[in-house]
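[User]
Protein folding is very new to me. Any chance you could explain this protein sequence and its structure tokens? I have pasted everything here:
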Amino acid sequence: MERGELQGGPRSLPEVLAQATVCLERAGVQTPRLDAQVLLAEACRLSRAGLLTRREPLGESEAERFDAMLSRRMRREPLAYILGRKEFFSLDFEVNSHVLIPRPETETLAGAALDFLRARGEARVLDIGTGSGILAVALAVNEPRARIVATDISPDALEVARRNALRNRCADRIAFLPSDLFPPGAGRFDLVVSNPPYIEDRLIDDLEPEVARFEPRAALAGGVDGLDFYRRIGARAKTWLNPNGALMVEIGAGQGTKVAEILARFGLEVVAVLSDLAGIERVIHARA
């Protein structure tokens, strides 16, 4: 769509929505009508329900905002980056191109970690590769007794994570540190969590354009076999965990057996392999 295509005069919202849906469908977007509704609601500063009851045509400034957002989505930029936010664990998070977009599968890891912390009581937690901070923030909000250290090698990602902690009013319980995995001098932890890069390098370019072209490659690429970070984390985990401490990591589909073998090789006892809501093995829980 050429910029300005929606600005030829007053247009009813149903007309604009129908046209945008066709544009997104032709661009290969998987959910064209839903995405068009979300973007139109954002441009009009309405809820999606509000779109159904509004009778006024699209105003000029609204058309300009919608045109710009629609053009970005037609280029397959992720909806979350266009909106600048994404929900995770019933919390609202800022996201941009410096961080991965939160996935619902990661709520399996957040839920397992939260169960562990509630049973443990006061605990020190390390979140490796925090990205936008979704795990650290979700744990801090839902278990205020936890004291959390969150690391990332990307300064830009850490800035997003810090803002998300402020956004969700838990910044006083999370220390964000620049580090490649484990933070030097931070002491031992009762729980280490991580959603590390786990996609095989050769597969990244074949992923959906939203992922391959827009999400940070460093947060996706797990090496030749996708398992590099499990080896790096597993090799050092025992020296960073307190007695009976736990390591919980998210894994990709079909990686359960191999990741469990890697962790066992480094002296960790695999306690459980947890599946997500789709029945796919998603989290490995190991003990020091």
In short: The chain is about 40% helix and 20% strand. The first strand starts at residue 85 and ends at 88.
